[in-house]
Amino acid sequence: MDKKKLIISDAEIPTIVQEKVDLAFTQIYEEEERTMKKRNFRIVKTIVATAAALGVVVFSGVCITNPSFAEEVPVVGNVFSSLGHKLGFGGDYEKYAQPIASDSLNEAVALTQTVDGNTVTLQDIYCDEKAMYISMIIESKDPFPISQMYPDLDNEDMYMFYLFDSKLKYSFETEDSSYNNNSLEYLNGEFIDDNTFQGVVKVDLAYVLNYYSKDVLESNEYYTDADTPVSHYDLPDSFTVDFELDDIVTDIDNPAFSELTMEEQDSLNWKNEYENWWIDGPWHFTFDVNVDRQNTTSKTIDVEGLSGISYITVSKTPFELELDYDDPYANYIVVALDKDGKHMEAEDDLSMLPVEGHDVSEITLYVCDYYDYMDEIKGLLLEGDGAKDILDEKALWSGVVEF
Question: No. of H helices and E strands in the chain?
Answer without folding.
Answer: 10, 21
